[in-house]
UniProtKB/TrEMBL annotation:
<keyword id="KW-0815">Transposition</keyword>
<dbReference type="Pfam" id="PF00872">
    <property type="entry name" value="Transposase_mut"/>
</dbReference>
<comment type="function">
    <text>Required for the transposition of the insertion element.</text>
</comment>
<dbReference type="InterPro" id="IPR001207">
    <property type="entry name" value="Transposase_mutator"/>
</dbReference>
<comment type="similarity">
    <text>Belongs to the transposase mutator family.</text>
</comment>
<keyword id="KW-0814">Transposable element</keyword>
<keyword id="KW-0238">DNA-binding</keyword>
<protein>
    <recommendedName>
        <fullName>Mutator family transposase</fullName>
    </recommendedName>
</protein>
<keyword id="KW-0233">DNA recombination</keyword>
Amino acid sequence: MVDEKLVAELAKRAQAEGMAISGEGGLIAQLTKIVLESSLQGEMDAHLGYGKHDPAGRNGGNSRNGTRAKTVLTETGPVEITVPRDRDGSFEPTIVRKRQRRLDGIDGIVLSLSAKGLTTGEISAHLAEVYGTSVSKDTISAITDRVLEGMTEWQNRPLDAVYPVVFIDAIRVKIRDGQVANRSIYLALGVTIDGDRDILGLWAGEHGDGEGAKYWLRILTELKNRGVRDVLMLVCDGLKGLPDAVNTVWDKTIVQTCVVHLLRNSFRYASKKDWGVLAKDLKPVYTAPSEQAALDRFAEFSEKWERKYPAIVRLWTDAWAEFTPFLAFDVEIRTVICSTNAIESINARLRRAVNARGHFPTEQAALKCLYMALMGLDPTGKGRGRWTMRWKAALNAFDIAFDGRLSADRI
């Protein structure tokens, strides 16, 4: 246990003597030095089987052989410590390993800053400013490269057998492949039968490809091979040809076009001064109690706007088959599937990380950056609770509407 009175007394004495609390040479750095050196001495005691100056060690073979100086980078800045040595060189310390120049906490800081979108140069400058030490860009890259093994394992992990809903989307990133070009990075987000968020994977599209149904077919097939045997509904942005691709993999899955995407695309064809009226006139369509009622409201909308904005009418007509499925369900289901907001909030975080970088030297560098951004989501865990509560009512409605396909997976 830490003696709080002793710590308070040390802080008081340090301030009285003009010593800094933090920074190089400050009180925290000196305490860090004491703790590290004491721990190393304790490790040496355990390694040799006796304490320093203990007669039990006489003529016992291996023994202490002085110390060597070493500077390690810590969260409080660089700290110079003395590391004990043994005569036969078999001592392998763990708290500060051989050739280790940074405590693990610094690596965690680097990964956290990288996950927030900072470049290697910005991280290096931050460490120099805050901790008063120089860490090269190559070292920072080496630290972040350690996540690649975890990323590969995460990308290939087995998945749940059934997901009530899977949201899919793609973002564009710039990757240097001879020359800087836009590439699609695909993302799939599943909602588990317990209402938890499960990011199923990240995939980089091939050079020159846009967001296409053909590539989504490859991704969905991979998800099936990783154990997903059933998806009740898949929500997307209305990509042409996607329903056929989805039903090739899961023949019972309902494909739902995101209503928010339809609205946004509608406004692209209209003058900004008409957006408010258009939104008001479209609302009765996507909030209708049934498909027939929605068709009647859309007929009224078309009669009013087709002459001025025929492209909007055509947009909704072409998307009608994928727009209407959610109208057959209760309000609990409608609320959670009428948009891809669930995945777009994640994409917003990914775009911030991407925009901070400008472009990436390789596809792997782009995926590494986005993976770390995903792993940095909701660090406190509070968002997970809100997410789960939001889905509870919908999951009960899903199980009823889909004839027990969810509860069957629990048996």
